[in-house]
Automatic annotation (TrEMBL):
This is ABC transporter permease. The chain crosses the membrane at residues 25-43, 63-84, 105-132, 152-169, 176-196, 231-249. Keywords: Membrane, Transmembrane, Transmembrane helix. It comes from Nocardioides renjunii. It comes from the Bacteria.
């Protein structure tokens, strides 16, 4: 079988694996409730106090803030989906069916990252319509919507890639979730509060700081830029993927 055909076949299997378990549907439903719910909160607050609305803002700007909640949901879903068959021992029959580990790694990474990213972006876009329903005068300009979708697609895609990488590298749902929370939330917030220059430097180079800057426009240091934040997110995602690839290709899959 050619590599392209094997990749396509494995990709279909990975898609089926994601949506054949209850946890994926639970994640999707809970994430939808959270993102759309916060969209309603943001919209109702804006409608109740129009003076707080920044001139030139659109409903897309309000929904953009729900991207952080989408990010954590997508990150957790990517970890759980990636580690599911390691937790159950299903990785052994998976590799018997797809013995070429590079094919499995590529298919799992692409399918999980694409699926979770599209889910997150779709929910945030839906959240924008919820915001707009409360404050229709803000509008939903197409160009602004496409720009926001592109920005969030990069943020959520990088987060999902980090989740897949951590999940496959640790082969433990709990360990990967702890690392993900530390890198995306606890580490940046904690280190930024300490009165040392080096802790600010470390916080700035954590993926959570990059995500916060791209969503809210603020970070641990004033010299952060959009480019540096994007590079930080991408570098962490790729590093996690390299680590997961090494472990899958070089070690026994059931250890």
């Amino acid at each position: 079988m050619s590599p392209a055909l094997a990749l396509a076949r494995t990709g279909r299997a990975e898609w089926s694996r994601i949506w054949s378990v209850r946890s994926s549907w639970i994640f999707a439903v809970v994430l939808a409730v959270v993102v759309l719910g916060f969209g309603a909160v943001i919209g109702s607050d804006a409608a109740a106090d129009p003076s707080d609305i920044t001139p030139g803002s659109t409903a897309w700007d309000g929904a953009r803030f729900t991207g952080m909640f989408a990010l954590f949901g997508i990150l957790a879903m990517a970890v759980v989906v990636s580690t599911a068959d390691h937790a159950t021992g299903g990785i052994v029959p998976t590799l018997q069916w797809t013995p070429r580990r590079g094919i499995l790694l590529a298919a799992r990474t692409v399918v999980v990252v694409a699926t979770t990213t599209l889910l997150g972006v779709g929910l945030v876009l839906a959240g924008a319509t919820v915001v707009w329903s409360f404050v229709p005068h803000l509008g939903l300009p197409l160009v602004d919507g496409l720009e926001m979708a592109g920005d969030l697609g990069f943020i959520l895609g990088s987060g999902a890639l980090l989740g897949v990488g951590l999940g496959l590298a640790t082969r433990s749902t709990a360990a990967a979730l702890v690392l993900a929370i530390a890198l995306m939330l606890v580490g940046p917030l904690l280190l930024a509060q300490l009165p040392y220059e080096w802790t600010l430097d470390v916080a700035t180079h954590l993926p959570g700081s990059g995500a916060l800057f791209l969503i809210f426009g603020e970070g641990p240091r004033d010299d952060m830029t959009t480019t540096s934040a994007r590079l930080t997110l991408a570098a962490w995602g790729l590093a996690a993927l390299v680590a997961s690839g090494w472990r899958l290709l070089a070690t026994d899959a059931d250890r």
